[in-house]
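Same chain as my last thread, 822 residues:
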Amino acid sequence: MHPRALRLGASVAAALVVAAGVLTTSPASAAVGDDDPSVGAASPNGLVVNEVESNGDDTDWVELRNTSSAAIDLSGYAFLDDDSSHEAYVLPAGSTIGAGGYFVIDQVSATAPGFDFGLGGADTARVYDPAGDLVLRYSWTAHAAVTYGRCPDGTGALVDTTASTKGAANDCSSPVRINEVESDGGTPGDWVELTNVGTTTVDLGGYVFRDSDDTHAYTIPTGTTVAPGGFTVLDEQDFGFGLGKADSARVFDPRGDVVDSYTWSAHAATTYGRNPDGTGAFAETSAPTKGAANRFAGVVTAEAWPGGPDERVLDDEDTFTGDLSGIDWTTSGSAAGQLWAVQNGDGLLYHLVSDGAGGWAPSNADGTELHYADGSGTPDAEGVTVTSDDPGAVYVSTERNNDVSSTSRPAVLRFATTDGSQSTLDATDEWNLAADFPGLGANAGLEGVTWIPDSWLTAHGFADEHTGAAYTPATYTGHGDGLFFVGVEGTASVYAYALMSDGAFQRVATIATPFSVVADVQFDPTLDALWVVCDDACSGRTALYEVADGAFAATTVYEAPSNADRTLANEGFAISGVCSGGSRATFYADDNDTDGFSLRTGTYPCDSSTPGDGGMPGDGGTPGDGGTPGDGGTPGDGGTPGDGGTTPTPVPTPGGGSTPAPGDTAPGGSTPGAGASPSGAPVAPSESSLTEANRGTLTAPAKARPGETITIAVGTRYAGQQVHVWMFSTPTLLGTTTVAADGTVTATIPADAPAGEHRIVVTAEDGTVLGWTTITIDPVTGALAFTGAEGLGVGAVAAFLLLAAGAGVLVLRRRRGTPASE
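reply #2:
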């Protein structure tokens, strides 16, 4: 909660409240949330804003440094971004920063407390002392490519750094890196490729290149440059000496300091290159890529967007109010189709139609206000989709109830509408997935949602990680005719769910992504693929996932269109199912309403000679009567869930899902049993295959909680390979995924995992054990991570009221609780 100004009569002094280990003061002259642009990023006591991460680390954070010679007590200091209606994060008692030390104010995560709002592309970091006075203030207008940090550390101006150094001295070194080395007679000879991991072009004039022999030195001529993310090649014919089979490549800046180096002991069969470019470890490439991005066997490398180079504005200025987040395309009576969109801060649903001249506008200009089933609350609407089995409804994914903005409520809501013509809508159904994501931050929930028909999933051999067998729709009674896929911001992963008509749910798949944030997901039946979308945290990249060996795996990663603004907060993505003139329209929803515009369009190539697929799911039915999907008959027909008595009632699991009881027979006579292993399905490793020889060859957190997503380091030698992740004692498949370029995979601990010691095992596609380690599952306490002064609780309120008793009129300064729009 906000520390509040206590305004009493002239004879009453300011009160101090101490509760739950948090100290706050309440002077009449200052309050957390008050702003003063004249306050800078350095305080007279030596405290400075030293580094800011707002764009794509595990969490957003602000690093403080103490440039004085004495420790500073930060207990009771409060932190806010530029929105004073957010709940200020109050640093707990015992927060100190030593002389010359660092202190990180971090965003809440599944394992640590912190602030529960995001830092945007244009935002402000504000720090208040216990008296409510603003003591530090730093603003930026766009995300840093890396971080904003002081160079020199602690004293210099805040600039884009070379590398993120959370809790340590800033990296103000040259951003030039050796990216690829040819030492065995390339074209026209040996060569070394340099790249720039910074944000501004670097003049390489005066830099010196050497091999392992100090007498071999080549000074790079003035005027030679390397652009951000670009490549510059030094050729043997220029530097005048060859590179040996056991040699080094070294680059020095004009001052003589080593910028980067790489040493090898044998020629590569191709070349040695960084994976990923500029930042990753060196490995043998799949082929030389002189002056271009490196390529590696089995690794999906980001490639240029194949469609048009532009993202063109579609909406009139100020049509929306600033945080349009999710978008979905479906067919309609118009050849252009129709769009559904949601706005998260005020929980609005928009129905958009084409004007026939290239523009789009809402048919419901003011939007439809969304509420929970009882008519209360403001759902933080982040994603939207329609389904073909329930054409009289729209489904919305949310992070929380904005009226209780510090509490996580990751949910899918159903609203009965065909055109959004209602002024308000109450949800007819809610599937609250919080039990599957304990500790998930309130601003880290369900960003995107899409729906995939069961018929498509079964035809493509989709596997059910819950049963360990081929996906069988009849396993999940009352779930309708398809699965919902949700993108979760806090885990940067996608999850498939069966949502049952009685409110139960069951996770069916977990899909890791190469992104730091999942902003939206979109099923594309034209490509037989799933789009996974990142926003400005990944410079607008998107990925296509296809089903292989039962699991969705990334097949293509695209850069943003070449002329697009990569800083746009495109949190929503949709693609038309209509091919016209060799392209399909793409749509982007900009959460920041940049320059007053929220809706943009681009193009993606298609074959106009090939008949279309009829559009996206949800476009082919006649609007129903608002019935719940999966009710035993045609959506909206009022049928009773279930099959009339022939199917056993599902038994709820601790995670909120629904699982057939042991021995139950699923509809249609199929029994999903423990031993079911369709062709291509992963086979669990045996106990005897877990030996001391393969123990410890991978690393994972020592502890985790049910529902938590963990990162497992398998090793860069497996980068690009598909692996299976298991948890023992009883072998449980956590997922099938592709090892990232840094040698890691992610997996989510089952929500019903019992407390105690388990083993995490990773196997290759052929079942070979790549490694295993132990992990302890902590019991679920039921409490979300502590978020600032929200933890003060009833005791603090009671103490506060006691202090106020008999002291005159107590007036609390309140602000409207508008949630974050990140």
